[in-house]
Design goal:
Helices cover 36% and strands 21% of the residues. By secondary structure, it is of the alpha/beta class. It has 2 domains: 3-274, Spore Coat Polysaccharide Biosynthesis Protein SpsA, Chain A; 282-345, no CATH class. Strands 1, 2, 3, 4, 5, 6, 7, 8, 11 and 12 form a 10-stranded mixed β-sheet that branches. A two-stranded antiparallel sheet has the order 9-10. Helix 9 (284-301) packs antiparallel against helix 10 (306-323) and helix 9 (284-301) runs parallel beside helix 11. The longest helix has 18 residues, at 284-301.
Length: 349
């Protein structure tokens, strides 16, 4: 079997963001690699996303996009469309003997148990079919270039121990700037940092980057090999949101599989290139899980770093006090007061 014949499942998780999800799906359907199925999972959206995505699949709805959009060509086709799809309610497909091979699979979950659980519905579908070599996890607010998947698979096939492979992520609103080229992790404080963030995009610079410094692949665009899933299992579900990336990467390394980035595979991410906008977007809900999950991850993999991680949480709380962020201080106090044995059960409120 040649690399171009290797089956790929592409999983896109939607939650209350149907317009971006449809644009992402359209860019996937326009890509140059043919042997794939796209799995869209709606994670119990509350804004009517599931209904609107189905209307789009039925050709009853087409979101408007401005002609001034510089990346419009990635998801606007001059030709008509006729999308063959199959719809499943929640995990009912697990009880079926035969699953659809239509180009698009739409799974409507009846509950939102977080990022990992939503993506796992798509991964479980692929495992039930068991006809694939790779699964590509994509954020719904991404757009893929036409050759991205082909380059990814060619790159992966050259690496016999491939576990996780990332792509070059560029900002959607600033396509000449890098959003991330994988990430680095400070295990002492349990803090993540994207590599090359906000640097000018230049392919020679990416090729010079020492990929031995990769601690994790950005979850917005992450290719998992079947070998990885067989050895390390499904995506973790205990975080709800954040820290899944470093958990997945840690399990990859502990199973002696490689982590790398195909720099020539380009994906655009709709995260704002403005640092100020990113800071404003990090609301109380996101901040809570970003803080809580420092302990969840460290307890799971590196418990000897727990003292320094707790110290880091105290410092984070003092910073929020200085900023007058009462909700942030309250969140961290709840985390600090919770026994470590119950930290995974702690939910935002």
């Amino acid at each position: 079997m040649s690399f171009s014949e290797k089956k790929v499942y592409i999983v896109v998780l939607n939650y209350n963001n149907w317009i971006d999800t449809i644009a992402c799906a359209k860019s996937v359907l326009l890509n140059d690699y043919e042997n794939f199925q796209l799995i869209i999972v709606d994670n119990a959206s509350t804004d009517g996303s599931a209904r609107r995505i189905k209307r789009w699949l039925d050709e009853e709805l087409e979101p408007w996009s401005p002609k001034s959009d510089s990346l419009r060509d990635l998801f606007i086709s001059p030709l008509g469309r006729d999308i063959e799809y199959e719809c499943y309610e929640d995990d009912t497909f697990l009880k079926q003997n035969s699953l659809s091979s239509k180009k698009v699979i739409f799974i409507r979950s009846n509950k939102n148990d977080g990022y990992g659980a939503g993506n796992n519905l798509g991964i479980k579908f692929a495992l039930m079919k068991n006809d694939f070599e790779y699964i590509w996890i994509l954020n719904n607010d991404t757009l893929v270039t036409k050759e991205a998947l082909k380059k990814l698979i060619f790159f992966a096939e050259e690496k016999p121990d491939a576990g996780l492979i990332g792509t070059t992520l560029l900002f959607y609103d600033a396509p000449d700037k890098i959003q991330a080229f994988g990430g680095s992790f400070n295990y002492l404080m349990a803090v993540q940092k994207h590599n090359l963030a906000h640097r000018e995009f230049a392919m020679p610079k990416l090729k010079e980057f020492n990929q031995k410094r990769l601690d994790y692949i950005i979850g917005a665009s992450m290719l998992m090999s079947k070998r990885y899933i067989q050895k390390a299992g499904l995506m973790p579900e205990e975080y709800f949101i954040y820290f899944e990336e470093i958990d997945i990467a840690t399990r990859c390394k502990r199973n002696n599989l490689d982590i790398s980035i195909c720099e020539e595979a380009i994906v655009y991410h709709k995260e704002s290139a403005s640092i100020e906008a990113q800071d404003q977007k990090l609301g109380s809900f996101s901040d809570f899980y970003a803080m809580r999950n420092r302990l969840v991850f460290t307890k799971k993999f590196f418990p000897y770093f727990l003292p320094s991680v707790y110290l880091g949480l105290v410092l984070s709380m003092l910073l929020r006090m200085k900023r007058g962020d009462k909700k942030g201080v309250k969140n961290i106090l709840r985390i600090l007061k919770t026994p470590l044995s119950k930290i995974t059960d702690l939910k935002y409120r």
